[in-house]
Amino acid sequence: VQLQASGGGLVQAGGSLRLSCAASGSIYSINRMAWYRQAPGKQRELVAAITSGGTTNYVDSVKGRFTISRDNDKNTVYLQMTSLKPEDTAVYYCKAELRSTSWSSYVSYWGQGTLVTVSS
Prior knowledge:
By secondary structure, the chain is mostly beta strands. The chain contains no helices and eleven strands.
């Protein structure tokens, strides 16, 4: 199983970016999918998460600016980021809890990370 994240880049403050993360390989079902970020010198933090049923939650600092969504047919999770601020600068990682067969347990997988840089 692999998670491939994309969509990062350099953007000015106030701008927008859309991150994507596609899971591939032996996948039977995916439960929770999420985006985390890690800024230089800081711990990795949860940014947003979405369950298989579509329930979402966000860290307070991004509420109203970021939107997480998923396409279950494509095993892909998205993060639409708007009104970006310099403090959003970080490496963004996707995470998926999935199982490869109907009888296996859910296992967490991480994507490789994509860098988002917001200039002031």
